[in-house]
Predict the structure.
Amino acid sequence: MEAETAVEIQSTLVDHEEEEADSDDEDEFGQYDLRDDESDLMAAKPPRFLRDCMDGLRDKANVERQSVALKHASTLIREDLPDLSILCVEFARLLVHLEDTGSNEEFGTQKIQALQAIAVMRPMQVGPALCIEFYSNNTSLRNRYEVLQALAKAATELSSPADTTVETPKKEAIAVAAVPNRPWTEVIAERLEAKTRRWGSAVTRKSVQPVSFVNRFAPVASWWFFPFIKSIDDSSLSWRLFTHEPNLLGQLIMTLAVFIECAGPSCSFLGSMIQMLVQVISALRGHKEAFVRRALLSALSRVPLLLSATAIYDSISDLDDILAWLQRSRLEDPDNDCRKLAAGCLGL
């Protein structure tokens, strides 16, 4: 009996060892989990580097990644990462030609904010590059408008105190470039009121202490202004601003006026810039589109605010013709807003 029991125990131990060996073999060659965890559809992460952001913007197949990259582009650019100087022009061109896929409701706003940010952070490099893209035959009409709006906002930010520019930029300059149908009569009326001295008023006006700051746009204004205005009637282009795109022409004139106003008296090229702008105004003053004439008159209204009377006579050679045009516009222009703007210009 004892021998039979020992044999049974030994047989049981052998069977148990064989079962453990079989179990080890099964663990070693475990089955793969073929279930789809949808990890490829998880929310895209915000980019941490400029190249990552640019790759995300180029990823047309992944709409969510592209939207996240555009949303964080402005913030990432303003961090002034070490490779921004190397990538800024390429980044700006990528933003210009970025097209809306229809999935991002804030696409236009975020795109302009990113263009504004990169123009502010690297104005000397990005400004001329955006001018080239504006006049490129491959740039769409909408993208040209976005370039002008972004540059007008960037010029306003650079010409404002550094600690308040992003939150409270010059409202007038931005409105000029972003809203074509703004009532210019109100602008002229405000300027006339500001220049009017009232004696014996019962209202005590508090004296406002001017804030001292460095105009960061003044040193780069000429790098933005001259390339735009020199190509305004370039015959080599397949499209012509003067004849084919009157609304864009008016928008460009208003943006150039914003450049001049933001440059201010501290800009050493201000006289030359105003002289060239007045030449364009003289060439276009008989334009058939009322919007273009409004833009010309609005741009002209900035000149007396930047130059003294003596400087105006020295800088504008055909001043008599300009004044005669203003008189005719005040009386004869078929557009009511143009008549009011001309009257306002004569009162400045």
Remarks:
- Confidence is low (pLDDT under 50) at residues 164-180, 200-205.
